């Protein structure tokens, strides 16, 4: 069991590491990414940087899962052209060997990819010239009863199959029974995941660098059930009490197991945060406002 934080990094510190090699990952399903990848590659190479290009980040991750080794030596920086899903895929691939990731946003939301697609050159220039900050993002370790271990940056979701009825889930915090849910499922998320599925299910938004866990029920039958915010050291256990067709365990959007009645998963903080890069002049609250469309103003009140 992991029970302590083993990182000497501070969230928000300047990132001024020299960059001699870059892994450039793209979302092959987005046409704009396909046309921008060679431009970014050429821009980096004119600055004497060694670049490895992978035009399909999902295929790259799948090859790694099937046993293909990661680049050797490991790159100094990973640049991802895509959306949050692409960033999550890159982070998953380098889960055991965290490499700083700069996300360039070509998706719909882009909480994890702070640089807009049409501003990629300035974003890379800021990164190479030391004008980026490191956001140390907390990760979770998920353990199954057979001892299998998985990592997640955003969330661990236990959800009923699409054609199944509500399921019964019991929540335990630090081995103490907390409550039972009759719901479509349950989400355990980090601050990174608080702006993803948890937010859509009514969960709170946590500051990106906040260390903590959010437990959010999905369409709970009892209206009294509300999201819980737990300390980062909390040990979260979820047991499947009732489900005719099993409960899917989905980590960062990837289904990893089907849990049957009586099964239990344990979620805990992982020892090592994952470093995501953000241009230093970018206000995280402005980023939230832009992504969520917060347009209200006191001036409108007259």
Describe the structure.
This protein is of the alpha+beta class and 302 residues long. The chain folds into two domains: 14-138 and 273-301, Probable inorganic polyphosphate/atp-NAD kinase, domain 1 (Rossmann fold, 3-Layer(aba) Sandwich), CATH 3.40.50.10330; 140-269, Tumour Suppressor Smad4 (Sandwich), CATH 2.60.200. It is 19% helix and 34% strand. It has helices at 31-45, 57-65, 84-93, 120-128, 197-200, 284-292, and strands at 14-15, 21-26, 50-54, 77-82, 101-105, 115-116, 132-137, 140-143, 149-152, 155-159, 167-173, 176-183, 185-189, 213-218, 228-230, 236-242, 247-251, 254-259, 264-269, 274-279. The strands form four sheets. The chain has a six-stranded antiparallel β-sheet, with no helix packed on it. A six-stranded antiparallel β-sheet has the order 15-14-13-10-17-18, with no helix packed on it. Strand 11 (167-173) and strand 12 (176-183) form a beta hairpin. The chain is globular and about 60 Å long. The model is unreliable at 1-9 (pLDDT under 50).
């Amino acid at each position: 069991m992991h029970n302590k934080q083993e990182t000497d990094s501070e969230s928000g510190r300047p990132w001024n590491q020299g960059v001699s090699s870059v892994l450039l990952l793209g979302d092959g399903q987005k046409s704009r990414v396909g046309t921008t990848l060679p431009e970014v590659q050429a821009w980096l190479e004119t600055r004497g940087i060694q670049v490895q290009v992978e035009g399909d980040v999902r295929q790259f991750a799948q090859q790694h899962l099937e046993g293909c080794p990661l680049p050797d030596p490991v790159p100094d920086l990973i640049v991802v052209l895509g959306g949050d899903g692409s960033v999550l895929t890159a982070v998953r691939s380098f889960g055991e060997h965290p490499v700083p990731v700069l996300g360039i946003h070509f998706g719909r939301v882009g909480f994890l990819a702070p640089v807009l697609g049409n501003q990629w050159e300035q974003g890379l220039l800021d990164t190479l010239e030391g004008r980026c900050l490191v956001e140390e993002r907390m990760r979770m370790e998920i353990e199954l009863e057979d001892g299998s271990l998985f990592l997640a940056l955003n969330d661990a979701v236990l959800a009923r199959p699409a054609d199944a009825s509500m399921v019964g889930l019991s929540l335990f915090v630090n081995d103490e029974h907390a409550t039972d849910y009759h719901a479509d499922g349950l989400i355990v998320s980090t601050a990174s995941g608080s702006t993803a599925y948890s937010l859509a299910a009514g969960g709170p938004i946590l500051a990106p660098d906040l260390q903590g866990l959010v437990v959010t029920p999905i369409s709970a039958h009892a209206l009294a059930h509300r999201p819980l915010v737990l300390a980062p050291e909390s040990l979260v256990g979820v047991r499947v009490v009732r489900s005719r067709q099993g409960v899917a365990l989905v980590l960062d959007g990837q289904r990893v197991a089907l849990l049957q009645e009586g099964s239990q998963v344990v979620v805990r903080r992982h020892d090592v945060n994952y470093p995501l890069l953000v241009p230093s002049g970018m206000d995280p609250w402005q980023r939230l406002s832009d992504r969520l469309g917060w347009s209200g103003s006191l001036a409108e009140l007259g």
